[in-house]
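Morning - SUD inputs below, output right after.
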Amino acid sequence: MEIIEKAPAKINLGLDVLYKRDDGYHELEMIMSSVDLADRLILSPLPTDEIIIKTNSGFLPTDRKNNIYQTIEIMRDAYQFKSGVEVQLVKNIPVAAGLGGGSSDAAATFRGLNRLFDLNATKQEMVDLSIPVGTDVPYCIHGQTSLVKGLGEIVLPLTQNMPSCWVVLVKPKLSISTPKVFAKLAVDDVYHPNIHALKNAIEAEDYHEMTQHLGNSLESYTMTKYPVVAEIKQKMLDFGADAAVMSGSGPTVLALCQKHSRALRVANSLKGFCKEVYVVRTLKS
Ligand SMILES: C[C@@](CO)(OP(=O)(O)O)[C@H](O)COP(=O)(O)OP(=O)(O)OC[C@H]1O[C@@H](n2ccc(N)nc2=O)[C@H](O)[C@@H]1O
Ligand SMILES: Nc1ncnc2c1ncn2[C@@H]1O[C@H](COP(=O)(O)OP(=O)(O)O)[C@@H](O)[C@H]1O
């Protein structure tokens, strides 16, 4: 028996860093949504108790460092099934891009194991178990446009999906260290996007108003350190995107376009500049 699960990329339409907590982490308030750029996982049971991960990506660990591996161990512990599992991961989401690929793979593994072994786990039970795997996993288990708070463990689905549109994703060839970004952030000085206006615009299904409120507190530090990120955003706007913002801790920048022709124009204009350019759609839950 085989189970196939899709693991869509997440985007941060809004990311506000509220303050630095006593434990050193930063309290966040975010609006997250998902797009149809997705990894694919094929899960099957094994006669032994092994966990085997096979992937087309040369860069990923296939041992306990992989979020999929950790998820299988956590679910096996919680639901006491003995069987081993093989997961074939078809990686389409760029790694370490601010698109939550690893977290989405973990969420797909929770869903897939639930189906494969008839575990009857509720969404909330999976969310509770997922927190140690990664801060974006609870959102990825919910999977619909949400207000996300804390470090990512509080997920409040909005009453509406984000208005449907085209999303252009551009990832420069850069690796950005998330710990470094947070460590260097001047918290008292960051830009605070208006997350509540963004939430209200989405819930009112007002595309134009939504585009006015995209924003990311981490953007200005990253753009100063890596000017190419600012250049990508500016080019997207110059070529007619309705709005553009960096996703998560970057370096991917996303642009929203209502018209497909406009999205193609933005994408084509950036292809000579960056190798990794994707034109995708928003997802409906
Ligand atoms: C910024 C976000 C938003 O979706 O997205 P991505 O860029 O990963 O997509 C996430 O909160 C990224 O969380 P996560 O992916 O868990 O970050 P990690 O790499 O584990 O974080 C490493 C380090 O960054 C700092 N950190 C991280 C998250 C947070 N809310 N406050 C922090 O101060 C901590 O020092 C932590 O040890
Ligand atoms: N299944 C997985 N897919 C992607 N990355 C993974 C996975 N499991 C563990 N990782 C590790 O997690 C790190 C962050 O990956 P990813 O989720 O793609 O980034 P981001 O949080 O920026 O969106 C990578 O350095 C990678 O080695």
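Note: The domain at 166-281 is CATH 3.30.70.890 (Alpha-Beta Plaits).

O.
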